[in-house]
Design a protein that fits this description.
TIM Barrel; two-stranded antiparallel ribbon; eight-stranded parallel β-barrel; alpha/beta; globular
């Protein structure tokens, strides 16, 4: 039986998240136009369908500026550009999104981020209300609709920008979050619900819960999975490569890295810590799912580790649960991108996600 198609994306480390040894800064791998451009171009050459351009205020380079710069260099791959709700006035953001989408020939998607703004601390409920308002306004404006809106965070009466996405419709909104507020916001406004690594039974539960929430709102969601990978020709070599990533990390450095993130207290981050704390002594939460990466980063904190057959089997098991999009990464990002592209990607039935 042929496995259903899925979207396979890579990750460009715009937010200073690239290492040979986790927790040990390397100037050659620090976020820059040249370095992140090379990751993107390598992912396109390797055959990936899409690439996530993350967003971080204190770290790295600006996401939308980078997206506009890289767009003319791409021939077929999509961009998944992260935007932090509240950073840019929605009407202006709609124009920027439309412009970049035109530069890409219609190959843009948006990763909606709901974290605090720099210098701001907002409780979960109002923060996600702001996110829902942003998604509502962006979708209307990008669909070519005028808005007359009176919300808690935005009050505006404005026509849509003349510049429109190539399709005439808003690009897909990818979104993730585990709290009750986040789940409700996702059910109401996003197209693709993203999950961070977790055990199989937890992934199944989340998909069921989010499907039910969306159904109550008369909507349907697709599901994506964000995870790191460490693939080598043998399982022994893959495990050794994973161990090498942590070989120069000390606990205080790891704690400082995790605390630096604006979303370091979120429910999703808490769950990644729980997964790590309940793993076996060698860091595996379940077969081939290694939590060691979470010792040196906030957010997505686990990796699929194994030989090509094991990595492929694990990804197909997630597909069997309902995952239709993967956002993968590895360290260093360019090297691991090439390894996955050579050893696993050609064996996957994949292509851009169709809503």
């Amino acid at each position: 039986m042929t496995t259903p198609p899925c979207e396979v994306s890579w990750f460009s480390a715009l937010c200073d998240d690239d290492y040979e040894f986790l927790g040990v800064p390397d100037p050659a791998l620090q976020s820059s136009w040249e370095h992140c451009r090379n990751i993107v171009l390598g992912a396109e050459k390797g055959g990936f369908d899409n690439i996530l351009l993350p967003s971080g205020y204190a770290l790295g380079v600006d996401t939308l500026a980078f997206a506009a710069g890289i767009a003319p260099m791409l021939k077929r791959m999509r961009l998944l550009a992260a935007i932090r709700c509240g950073e840019i006035w929605p009407a202006q953001l709609a124009r920027q999104i439309s412009t970049i989408d035109q530069m890409l020939g219609g190959r843009l998607a948006i990763n909606i981020i709901s974290s605090d703004m720099p210098g701001e601390t907002l409780a979960s409920a109002p923060r996600y209300r702001r996110t829902v308002e942003v998604m509502h306004l962006l979708r209307a404006l990008l669909n070519g609709e005028a808005v007359d809106f009176d919300g808690d965070f935005y009050k505006m009466k404005v026509d849509p920008p003349r510049i429109r996405p190539v399709s005439g419709q808003a690009p897909a909104f990818y979104f993730g979050g585990l709290s009750e507020d986040a789940r409700d916001a996702a059910a109401e406004g996003c197209d693709v619900y993203l999950m961070w690594p977790d055990k199989m039974e937890a992934v199944k539960e989340i998909i069921g819960d989010m499907t039910a929430r969306a159904t109550k709102k008369g909507r349907k969601l697709k599901f994506g999975y964000r995870v790191h990978v460490v693939v080598r020709e043998t399982e022994e070599a893959a495990r050794a490569a994973a161990d090498r990533l942590l070989s120069r990390l000390d606990a205080p450095t790891g704690d400082a890295i995790r605390a630096k993130s604006l979303d370091s207290q979120s429910e999703g981050v808490r769950r990644q810590a729980e997964l790590r704390q309940t793993a076996s002594d060698d860091g595996y939460a379940e077969e081939n799912l290694w939590t060691g990466i979470g010792r040196a980063r906030s957010g997505c904190g686990a990796a699929i580790v194994g030989d090509p057959d094991q990595v492929l089997k694990k990804l197909q098991a997630y597909q069997d649960l309902g995952i239709e999009a993967f956002i993968l990464s590895g360290y260093p990002h360019q090297a691991e991108c090439d390894l996955f592209a050579r050893h696993v990607l050609p064996r996957m039935n994949h292509g851009p996600l169709v809503l």
